[in-house]
Amino acid sequence: MTERIDIDTAMKLASDAFQPYGCVTGANPEDDSFALTVMNGDGTTLLSISHVHQTQYANPLRLNGVIEQARLDLTHKGCHLQPWSMPWIIDPSTLPETPPNY
Fold first, then answer.
1. Global confidence as pTM
2. How many structural domains is the chain composed of?
3. Are 86 and 67 in contact (CB under 8 A)?
4. CB–CB of 18/80 below 8 Å?
5. Residue 60 belongs to some domain of the structure
């Protein structure tokens, strides 16, 4: 994937990257960034990243690096994640709707 991606697409990708855990994302419109929190089924926060800036998410390779580092951090904490890789996206509007994580 080499196309620049927007914040909504980046948040959808991040939400899908931490299965079977829940990942909640939220936009920070004042500086075009987003935050993400990964939680277990009990709602306990396992990982929180308060600031993923546009320079980190607009480039798919950089976003992949952010997500892979977060996944590695969770693995080191003993979390068992499902396999994930950055999808090839030609048109970001074709991403499936991500159901909310509660």
1. 0.81
2. 1
3. yes
4. no
5. yes
DSSP structural state of residue 41: T
Beta strand pairing call for 45-52 and 33-39: antiparallel
Note the pLDDT tens digit of each residue in 30-51. Answer: 899 999 999 999 999 999 999 9
Q: Tell me the Ramachandran region of residue 32: left when phi exceeds 0, alpha when psi lies from -120 to 50, beta otherwise.
A: left
Retrieve residue 12's tokens.
């959808």
pLDDT grade for 4, boundaries at 50, 70 and 90: confident
Tokens of 26: 């939220």
Does 89 fall in a domain?
A: no
The residues near 61 (Cβ < 8 Å, ≥ 6 apart) are none
The answer to whether the CB of 63 falls within 8 A of the CB of 11 is: no
84 in a domain, yes or no? no
In a domain, 29, yes or no: yes
Containing domain of residue 15, as a range?
A: 7-77
pLDDT band, very low/low/confident/very high, at 95 (cuts 50, 70, 90): low
